[in-house]
Task: inverse folding
């Protein structure tokens, strides 16, 4: 306990030299004057609804702990419920909309399903990459104050006793969030954790237990280019209550959303790698459309409707129609979309960003919409929809193997154009790919690039060229079979390139060799395809 208070006190005081303190590292750019002002506002604002926080803490305690503290075991090792994710997240998020800040009380239950005991738990705290973005107030493990080290997005929690195989532990956190205002420049691309005068976006804002891969924690340092997150799936149950907002406030959120009063919502999102919400007092009424039993909703501002040459163009309506078509196509070509709702939010930041069941599409693509499909409003919307398969269903390491989701999501744009606008196929290749003269190896890590353009060119654009060549090499039927097999093999997991390439039937590998040599740095067969299956050659494997 002493240790935590000491670390927090030093961090809050701004003495940034202590090892392990979250201020000891250089964070991504933020406006420090603004951050100081924001902190003052936060401290001056009324305390959060302690009754609500207390009730949640009691409810979480009742759910997770029964023995008296002196008898409390270091972990619980009762029956295994492997039908649900190893990560269960419950959170109470109390937002001050005026201050664009939040107080969060969060409970994480983590179940060790590995053969080895764990001596520490690593939490991924994306919000802490920003100066003043995250302030930890308390952290307990099984109701006891825990020692921790917080270093950018890495929150390492030491356990008094190892978490044995098959055992669970309860992590409880209380913290403040202060997203920064979305401004120009590279920082603006992370506007999914930020606010504009008319919107508050909270994406990747709840800490989660880092992914486990190859017997270790898989967590990467954030940089300004691309993405670096790697997430295992979790069940998320989040209560959102908002103070200091107009009556017109609307919540955009994925999953099952239940409104429990003015500005109070319960959101449940199961089997999801992430959890994101967005709030605005200025949304036009959410628009609905049903596609293959999926309800599509678009949350857009009035400026999504524009007039060009006397003609009214409604970007929100266009996105709804294209989303309906894309969902139906990918349902057929890839696998069924696994949720009842799909939410698209007009984001006050560039480009777009995928989350599970909800995506952001950059506001500029709405306000510059020129009608028809030949524009970024169409392509980025479709691209983010495709991430519901390539990222949300089959996951990957977005820092080390970004092509696995980005090349596939970008190629999915082409599949959409090919299906619904075949006359524009050549346009897509020129507009989206050839015009940038892409260079580089597809299987590059995000850390190899110093500009976003070079990263996109190598990973996304050379990536779609590789995928298209692969399709030509083996034919449509084998290509789509391969994509479906990859989805099936990787659903709910974090895939690596070997899982992708192993879906290529051995008899077709030679046909793809030239493509692999051209686009991949790591084109070695044993690295791509892995070792042969031990039972692949046994006579009874024929069944
Ligand atoms: Zn993408």
Result:
């Amino acid at each position: 306990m002493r240790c935590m208070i000491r670390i927090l006190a030093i961090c809050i005081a701004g003495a940034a030299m202590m090892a392990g303190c979250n201020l000891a590292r250089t964070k991504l750019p933020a406006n420090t004057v603004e951050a100081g002002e924001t902190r003052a506002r936060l401290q001056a604002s009324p305390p959060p609804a302690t009754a609500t926080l207390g009730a949640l803490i009691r409810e979480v305690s009742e759910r997770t702990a029964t023995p008296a503290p002196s008898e409390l075991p270091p972990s619980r090792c009762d029956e295994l419920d492997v039908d649900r994710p190893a990560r269960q997240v419950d959170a109470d998020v109390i937002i001050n909309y005026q201050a664009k800040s939040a107080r969060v009380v969060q409970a994480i239950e983590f179940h060790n399903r590995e053969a080895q005991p764990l001596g520490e738990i690593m939490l991924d705290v994306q919000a802490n990459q920003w100066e003043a973005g995250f302030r930890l107030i308390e952290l307990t493990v099984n109701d006891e104050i825990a020692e921790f080290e917080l270093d950018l997005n890495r929150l390492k929690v030491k356990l008094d006793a190892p978490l044995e195989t098959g055992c669970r532990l309860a992590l409880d956190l209380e913290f403040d969030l202060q997203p920064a205002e979305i401004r120009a420049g590279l920082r603006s691309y992370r506007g999914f954790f930020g606010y504009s005068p008319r919107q508050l976006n909270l994406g990747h804002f709840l800490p989660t237990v880092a992914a486990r891969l190859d017997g270790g924690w898989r967590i990467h340092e954030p940089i300004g280019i691309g993405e670096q997150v790697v997430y295992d799936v979790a069940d998320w149950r989040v209560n959102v209550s908002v103070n200091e907002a107009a009556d017109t406030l609307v919540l955009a959120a994925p999953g099952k959303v239940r409104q429990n009063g003015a500005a109070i919502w319960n959101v449940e999102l199961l089997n999801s790698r992430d959890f994101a919400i967005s709030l605005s007092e200025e949304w036009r009424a959410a628009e609905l459309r049903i596609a293959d039993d999926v309800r599509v909703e678009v949350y857009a501002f009035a400026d999504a409707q524009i007039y060009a040459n006397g003609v009214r163009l409604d970007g929100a309506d266009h996105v709804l129609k294209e989303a309906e078509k894309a969902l139906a196509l990918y349902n057929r070509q890839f696998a069924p979309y696994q949720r009842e709702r799909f939410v698209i939010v007009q984001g006050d930041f560039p480009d777009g960003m995928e989350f599970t069941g909800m995506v952001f599409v950059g506001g500029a693509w709405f306000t510059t919409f020129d009608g028809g499909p030949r524009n970024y409003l169409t392509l980025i919307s479709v691209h983010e929809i495709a991430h519901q398969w390539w990222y949300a269903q089959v996951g990957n390491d977005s820092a080390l193997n970004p092509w696995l989701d980005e090349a596939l999501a970008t190629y999915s744009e082409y599949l959409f154009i090919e299906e619904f606008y075949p006359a524009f196929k050549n346009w897509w290749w020129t507009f989206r790919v050839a015009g940038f003269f892409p260079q580089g190896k597809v299987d590059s890590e995000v850390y190899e690039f110093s500009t976003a353009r070079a990263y996109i060119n190598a990973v996304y654009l050379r990536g779609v060229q590789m995928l298209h060549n692969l399709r030509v090499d083996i034919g449509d039927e084998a290509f789509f079979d391969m994509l479906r097999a990859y989805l099936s093999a990787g659903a709910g997991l974090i895939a690596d390139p070997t899982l992708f390439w192993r879906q290529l039937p051995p008899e077709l590998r030679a046909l793809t060799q030239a493509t692999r040599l051209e686009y991949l740095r790591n084109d070695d067969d044993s690295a791509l395809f892995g070792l042969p299956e031990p039972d692949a050659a046994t006579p009874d494997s024929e069944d």
Notes: Confidence is low (pLDDT under 50) at residues 1-72, 536-543. The CA atoms of residues 241 and 255 lie 17 Å apart.
